[in-house]
Design a protein that fits this description.
heterodimer; A: 238 residues; alpha/beta; Rossmann fold; two-stranded antiparallel sheet; 5 helices; B: alpha+beta; Mth169, Chain: A; three-stranded antiparallel β-sheet; 3 strands
């Protein structure tokens, strides 16, 4: 299958994502510039981490109006798998493809460390190969990962089982101490109603090889391969 | 025409930067400071024939770009 990795001016995890899916997972991958309007026939899209447009105004606020985003939206509307990691998640929030917004980390510090996240749901495009309740050790690297949504929206996300990852402690519990950034209800990742668009603050693409300290992130990319194989065909992008 | 746009976090949204400023002010001896909310201020020049038109245009810009309605609200002043 073929992955498209969208490159915004200021993306800095685009090569990590490309490396993970191409060289570690062994699938085809290509970069797509944010001013392009075609995903080049990709079966899945990754919006990588970084600081698109310098994160000026708000994280993702300018990137959401990049020309490629209209194409990403129609790809997502058609059921195509889209993964937003960190800045990519922030862009999906600003674009309204996922609900909520990001606030500055509770402690105001930029945080770069390994965290534990628990897989809450396995019926999404990017967790289909996971076990429910499985914990993954994956790094975070952000200043604005304090996920916020109104109580109504949070309740709806819980009711619809759209909270996909939560920050947890060594015992697998979502305690306040395990929450690195103050995110509402320890939320580290969510999905859309169609369960094909997933946004998450931790960086699975940086945890795909043992030499990097953890290979726990690889299962997310294996999941999308499985999802598309189970569908009996690839999504068709333009 | 020129407009001023003030964007602030909604009252229900915790402002960690504002909280830190309050704590700094308290440690400087300004015990009378109750709360600080940090926001953003924009000066926007637009081509508009009237103040009403400028307000409508800047409102549209604020809705679309300057503020995120999930966490922020805004006020507009037309100055000239």
């Amino acid at each position: 299958m073929k992955f498209a990795v969208v490159v915004f001016p200021g993306s800095n995890c685009d090569h990590d994502a490309y490396h993970a899916v191409k060289h570690v997972l062994g699938h085809d991958a290509s970069f797509v510039w944010h001013k392009d309007t075609s995903l080049g026939g990709a079966d899945a899209v990754i919006l990588p981490g970084g600081f698109a447009h310098g994160d000026y105004l708000r994280t993702g606020a300018i990137a959401r109006y990049s020309p490629i985003m209209a194409t990403v939206r129609s790809f997502a509307d058609g059921g195509g798998p889209v993964l937003g990691v960190c800045n990519g998640f922030q862009i999906l929030l600003e674009a309204g493809l996922l609900p909520g917004a990001m606030l500055r980390n509770r402690g105001l510090k930029f945080i770069c460390e390994d965290v534990r996240i628990r897989v809450e749901e396995t019926d999404t495009a990017f967790t289909a190969a996971c076990a429910k309740g499985q914990t993954l050790r994956i790094p975070i690297n952000h200043g604005e990962g304090n996920y916020f949504a109104s109580d109504d929206v949070l309740d709806a996300l819980e009711r619809e089982r759209r909270v996909i990852f939560r920050y947890v402690d060594a015992a697998g519990q979502p305690t306040p101490e395990a929450n690195p950034n103050g995110a509402s209800r320890n939320i580290a990742g969510i999905c859309n109603e169609g369960r094909n668009v997933v946004g998450m603050m931790p960086h699975p693409e940086r945890a795909c090889e043992g030499v990097l300290g953890s290979a726990d992130g690889l299962v997310l990319f294996e999941s999308v391969v499985k999802t598309l194989a189970d569908r009996g065909g690839m999504a068709v992008s333009r | 025409m020129k407009a001023r746009v003030f964007v602030t976090l909604k009252p229900s949204v915790f402002d960690p930067q504002g909280r830190t400023i309050v704590e700094a002010l308290h440690s400087l001896g300004y015990g009378g400071v109750g709360d600080v909310r940090q926001g953003k201020y924009f000066e926007v020049e637009v081509d508009a024939a009237s103040a009403d038109e400028a307000r409508r245009l800047v409102g549209e810009i604020a809705d679309k770009v300057l503020a995120n309605p999930v966490i922020e609200s805004y006020q507009i002043e037309i100055v000239s």
